[in-house]
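Here is one chain, start to finish.
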Amino acid sequence: MSLIQEKWDQLADIKEELAGRDWFMGTSGNLAIKVAAEPLQFLVTASGKDKRKRTEEDFLLVGHDGKPADETGLKPSAETLLHVEIYKRTKAGCSLHVHTVDNNVISELYGDAGSVAFKGQELIKAFDRWDEDAVLTIPIIPNHAHIPKLAESFSEHILADSGAVLIRNHGITVWGRTPFEAKKLLEASEFLFRYQLKLLQLKQIQTAI
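Its structure:
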């Protein structure tokens, strides 16, 4: 099996699992996995595809500029430049971007503050926050329609080989050294967002009583 096929299968498995969680509404979201560092090449989801289906046109190989490495009729996902920034700046091997109701609502609630923080939650350990008083802060950036501008704003928060950034009313992008780590961070983030929203709802109910 070639390296590209191996990476393709890994990304396809992640896509299938996330699709099962209903995290690709309206063909939204995109996934990427690094194939080579020098020169940079990675597989990324093709734009406009139904991610609930598994086909031979799910992904395409792109280079350091986010453009197809080979002649193809497929178009890279609109946010491909975000993945480019991740792989240029870190040793990450996989990056995932999904739109969910929970992460969009969280991004709107805390968007003016520019970040959302979690403390005392067990799942922040997924981000290697192990101290008892540890705080996980996930930055929130504006949803610039111009993708190069969005990528520039996004790149300011790529500070390690793994991490997460929310785009206001757009979705979350996570990255990790391995596909498993990236998926772990995505799952942990979505748990934290759902927990926070339910906690706020309960507090509102208690206040109204």
